[in-house]
Amino acid sequence: MPDIIIKGKALIGNKLKNGTFKVTPKGIEEIREGEPQYFGTIIPAPVNFHTHLGDSFIGEEPIGTLPEIVGPNGFKMRHFIASSHISFTLVISWLTNSIVLFFF
Description:
Helix content is 31%, strand content 28%. The chain folds into 2 domains: 44 residues, no CATH class; 57 residues, no CATH class. It has 4 helices and 4 strands. The radius of gyration is 15 Å and the shape is globular.
C-alpha cells in the first residue's frame, strides 16, 4: 500500500490540525515536505464512516456555523437538492473512490 500525502486538516488525538500529512498503514503523521496528492480533511476510521461516506459526493468541506452546516437547511441538504440532476452512476463512482481511499 503506497503512502498518501494530503494537505488540509487532520484529526490527531483530540485536536484538528492544519498542515500536510502522510497517511500510512501505521497512521497519520504531519510532514513538512512532499507534494499533496489530495486536499481535504482526514478523520481516522471508524468515526461515522457510515454517515460521511454518503457525503463524499459533495467534494468540498462545509464552512460555517453548526446550524448552517447541519439540519434541514444545512450544507449537506442544500447539496443534495442542488445535485438532484447528477446521475446515480456518477454518485456510485464517487462513493467507490471514497471507499478505495478509506481502505487504500
